[in-house]
Design goal:
This protein is mainly α. The chain is 84% helix and 0% strand. The protein is rod-shaped and about 65 Å long.
């Protein structure tokens, strides 16, 4: 929502203000990348830790724990990619794999 407001302000600004408004919108986008990267790192770490706990609990939970840890690694990869290059096409495979593996261990 903040990015939409910043872009709308840039689009409706007069020519003297356009550069300043564009820089503000760009700053909001970079902040979005940073927050999303941080979230993916922490979520991935949490999944890895919960996965390890399930692996240690016994043979019935072990496959779920491995899948949880795998989805955690996917989210760590997403966090790294978003942190270094933003929302790029390079993030498509880790995102898709993370979603699929998360759905599998959840079911």
């Amino acid at each position: 929502m903040a990015l939409k407001q910043a872009v709308n302000a840039w689009a409706s600004a007069e020519s003297a203000e356009k550069a300043m408004r564009f820089e503000a919108a760009e700053t909001v986008r970079w902040l979005e990348w940073a927050v999303r990267s941080y979230h993916s790192f922490l979520f991935g770490l949490a999944l890895i830790l919960f996965g390890a706990a399930n692996v240690l609990r016994g043979p019935v939970r072990r496959p779920i724990g491995y899948l949880m840890a795998l989805s955690g690694l996917c989210y760590l990869a997403q966090g790294w990619i978003i942190g270094t290059s933003g929302f790029s096409q390079a993030n498509a495979i880790p995102t898709l794999l993370g979603i699929v593996v998360t759905v599998v261990w959840t079911v």
